[in-house]
Amino acid sequence: MSSYYSPITYLVPPQEDGWLLKTILQKRMDVSRKLLSRLKMTEQGIMLNGERVYISVRVSSGDRVEIRMEQETSEDILPQDIPFDILYEDEHLLVVNKAAGIIVHPTHGHYTDTLANGVMHYWAAKGEQYRFRPVHRLDQETSGVLVIAKNPYSHQHISEQMIAGTVDKRYAAFVHGVPALPAGDIDGPIDRDPAEPHRRIVTPDGYPSLTRYEVKEVFPGRAARVELKLESGRTHQIRVHMSSIGCPLIGDGMYRHRLYGRGPVEAELAAPAAKTELEAELLPPAEGVLTPEEAAQLARIAELDAAIPRQALHAVRLSFKHPVGLAELIFEAPLPPDMALLQQKLRQEQL
């Protein structure tokens, strides 16, 4: 006999008297076609006043409509005792503050030591059974707010909000340099780099991608703290977009500052030979070498990159409507210690 989660209930108001049950399920309870098909196949999936019925019946004012989903689990995920920070939990959702350095879900060649392994252990220890359903992802080295749905209904609802653009996702980041404008949009299509498929690039043939940014703090001559809002969800989107405007994330080993590609050289080798000081000023630097100013800048960039062991990116805020009841939920996660230390370093250097 199947085991079910607690029912999601809807009471029919007077103005919906005589409606088809199918209409109630789709228009009022927002059950997707896919989930509706699954519910119809289970014994207690769709109930009207405690009885199993066809969705073609008509309802009356005051009727109690219930949907029940069968309990599931992720049998292919090994439970492991991995601690994680819980921001919120109820029977429909689990919201966590993901630490940097941990992968969200097992991948090829990396089946253990992920957030999913830790969550499955946590649920098992409580005697609960759910399938691991992250509604969105964060890069391994990105920290912050992450939502996990406990059933297909919750996953569907929040996913639809994300597609509709009503989920507010905000990130805090520290970047090299300062954007030209205090706030703006980075509208650049993103796709794989043909030369390195694990990387992403801004390219005219890519997928539409939009990132909004606002400079929150400037550290003169060196860096800035920015808040970013995603209007699309491409892989590495923030990292690629900030790099594309000349402000790569501090600590990002994949999308590094363009000066790294030039390579460090001795200052006296940075410019071609010239007979006079005037000629030296007019001649461009030789290809593949740095001017003294660029060499000094690269040294400062490398110093900041060494101050944090990963890209300085944190999912600081996430808001959306709860899938059951539609209450507005807002979750925030403060800067993790490594980013707080980086911020302190940058502020102290201004004194």
Describe this structure in words.
Keywords: Isomerase, RNA-binding. This is Pseudouridine synthase. It is an enzyme of class 5 (isomerase). With 351 residues, the chain is of the alpha+beta class. Among the domains are: 60 residues, Structural Genomics Hypothetical 15.5 Kd Protein In mrcA-pckA Intergenic Region, Chain A; 143 residues. The protein contains 8 helices and 16 strands. The radius of gyration is 26 Å and the shape is elongated.
| Average of per-residue pLDDT values | 90
Any idea what the shape is? Answer: elongated
Helix percent reads 10-25%
Which structural category do the helix and sheet elements fall into? alpha+beta
Main beta sheet, described?
Answer: 10 strands, mixed
Q: Which consecutive residue ranges, at least 5 long each, have pLDDT under 50?
A: 263-287
Distance between the termini: 69 Å
Q: Give the DSSP E fraction (strand runs of 2 or more residues).
A: 25-35%
- Rg, alpha carbons: 26 Å
**How many E-type strands?**
16
Report the total helices. 8
The helix/strand order is: EHHEEEEEHEEHEEEEEEHHHEEH
What's the SSE blueprint?
Layout (H helix, E strand, L loop, with lengths): L7 E4 L9 H8 L4 H8 L5 E3 L2 E2 L11 E4 L17 E5 L3 E6 L16 H11 L7 E2 L8 E7 L2 H13 L3 E9 L6 E5 L2 E4 L2 E7 L7 E10 L3 E8 L6 H8 L32 H6 L9 H14 L7 E9 L6 E5 L4 H12 L3
Parallel strand pairs: 8-15
Antiparallel strand pairs: 1-4, 2-3, 2-4, 5-6, 6-8, 7-8, 9-14, 9-15, 10-13, 11-12, 13-14, 15-16
